[in-house]
Write a structure and sequence with these properties.
The complex is a heterodimer of chains A (125) and B (210).
Chain A lengths: L6 H28 L3 H27 L9 H30 L22
Helix pairs in contact in A: 1-3, 2-3
Chain B lengths: L1 H37 L6 H60 L7 H25 L3 H20 L3 H4 L3 H34 L7
Helix pairs in contact in B: 1-2, 1-6, 2-3, 2-6, 3-4
Classes of the chains: A mainly alpha (125), B mainly alpha (210).
Chain lengths: 125, 210
C-alpha cells in the first residue's frame, strides 16, 4: 500500500483497484469462453495493450498538467495509474496463459515480442 | 423529412461502424500477417506490409458488403442505396489513409501515397471479381465465401507472389478462411444490433430482429 496516501485515500485506491480488476477479469473470462479462434484471440491481446497504452498516456499527461478528477490528489492519482497498470498486466498475463492452455501454443507465435502486431522498423521501401 | 431523418441515422451508423470496422480490420490483418511472417510463410518485408493492406481492405469490404445486405433486408432498396453511397463517398475513399496511419505506427516511412495505389488496385480487383461472381449467384454469403476461399486465396495471392500462403496446409488455410468469415460476422452482429437499436428508437417500436 502506498504510504504517501491518507487512510481514506488508501481505501479509495483499494476500491478502485478491486472494481477495475473485477471488470477487466470478467472481460477476459468472456474472451476465454467465447473466442475460439487463435487470430482473433491474439488480436484482442494486441488491442488490450494498445488501448491501455493510450489510456495510460492520457492519464500520465493529465497528472503532469495537474488535470485531476475532483477530490483526487496528485498522490492518489499517481497510485491509481500504478494500480491500474498492475491490473492490466495481470489481465494480459491471464490472456496469454489462457491462450496457451486453450490452443496449445504461445500467443507470441501470432504477435511481436511486445504482445502487439509485429513491428519491423525501417525496412519498407 | 422522415427520409432525411433515416438517412442521417444511417449516416451516424455508417460513421461509427466504419471507424470500428476499419480499426478492427487493420488489427486483425496485422495479427494474421505477423503469424505468417513468424511461420516464414512470408519472407519478403515489402510483401508483409502489402499483405496487411490488402487483408485489411478485404476484411473491410466484406464487412461493408455484409452490412449493406442487412440494410437491404431490413430497410429496403432505397435505404440500402443511401447507405452504400455514404460508405462509398466518404469511408471507402478514406480507407487508405486509415490503413496507412495504422501501418505507420510500426513503420514510420509508410504514407497514404504509398498505400493508396496498392489498396485502390486491390479494390478494383475485388469489384471486378465480385461482378463476375454475381453472374452466378446473388446471395452475398455465396459471393463472399467464393471470393475469399477460391479467388482471393488462389488467384490473387498466387499472381502476386504469395505462393507459400497459397500452399498453406489445408487445416490452417481453412482456419484462416473461417476466421475471416467469423470476423465479418462478428462485425456484422455488432452493426445489426446498432442499427436495430437506432431504428427502434426512431420508429418508437422495436424493429424486427432476425
Amino acid at each position: 500500500m502506498d504510504t504517501n496516501l491518507t487512510s481514506e485515500e488508501q481505501g479509495q485506491l483499494k476500491n478502485w483497484v478491486a472494481q477495475m480488476e473485477a471488470g477487466e477479469m470478467a472481460q477476459v473470462q468472456d474472451l476465454i469462453q467465447n473466442c475460439n479462434v487463435t487470430f482473433q484471440f491474439a488480436k484482442t491481446h494486441s488491442v488490450y495493450i494498445k488501448d491501455w497504452e493510450k489510456m495510460k498516456g492520457q492519464m500520465e499527461g493529465n497528472l503532469e498538467n495537474g488535470v485531476l478528477p475532483p477530490g483526487v490528489s496528485a498522490n492518489l492519482f499517481r497510485a491509481i495509474i500504478d494500480g491500474s497498470d498492475g491490473v492490466m498486466q495481470r489481465k494480459l498475463q491471464k490472456v496469454r496463459d489462457a491462450f496457451e492452455l486453450k490452443f496449445g501454443e504461445s500467443i507470441y507465435n501470432y504477435l511481436g515480442a511486445d504482445g502487439k502486431t509485429k513491428k519491423l522498423f525501417g525496412i519498407f521501401g | 423529412m422522415f427520409r432525411n431523418t433515416k438517412t442521417n441515422l444511417l449516416s451516424d451508423v455508417a460513421r461509427a461502424y466504419s471507424e470500428r470496422t476499419l480499426n478492427n480490420s487493420c488489427e486483425f490483418s496485422g495479427v494474421v500477417s505477423s503469424y505468417l511472417l513468424q511461420k516464414r510463410l512470408i519472407r519478403d518485408i515489402h510483401k508483409y506490409y502489402v499483405l496487411q493492406m490488402i487483408l485489411a481492405a478485404q476484411l473491410y469490404i466484406f464487412a461493408i458488403f455484409s452490412s449493406g445486405y442487412f440494410i437491404f433486408e431490413k430497410l429496403g432498396q432505397e435505404r440500402h442505396d443511401d447507405f452504400m453511397q455514404i460508405m462509398h463517398d466518404y469511408y471507402i475513399k478514406n480507407a487508405t489513409r486509415r490503413v496507412a496511419a495504422f501501418l505507420a505506427e510500426y513503420e514510420p516511412q509508410i504514407t497514404d501515397e504509398m498505400v493508396k495505389p496498392i489498396v485502390d488496385n486491390f479494390i478494383e480487383w475485388n469489384n471486378s471479381a465480385t461482378r463476375a461472381l454475381r453472374i452466378k449467384s446473388n446471395d452475398y454469403r455465396d459471393i463472399s465465401s467464393a471470393l475469399f476461399t477460391e479467388i482471393f486465396m488462389d488467384s490473387f495471392l498466387a499472381s502476386n507472389g504469395y505462393d507459400a500462403l497459397v500452399a498453406l496446409d489445408k487445416e490452417k488455410r481453412e482456419e484462416l478462411s473461417s476466421t475471416i468469415r467469423d470476423m465479418v460476422n462478428s462485425f456484422g452482429r455488432e452493426f445489426q444490433q446498432d442499427v436495430i437499436a437506432r431504428v427502434s428508437t426512431l420508429n418508437g417500436s422495436p424493429a424486427k430482429e432476425s
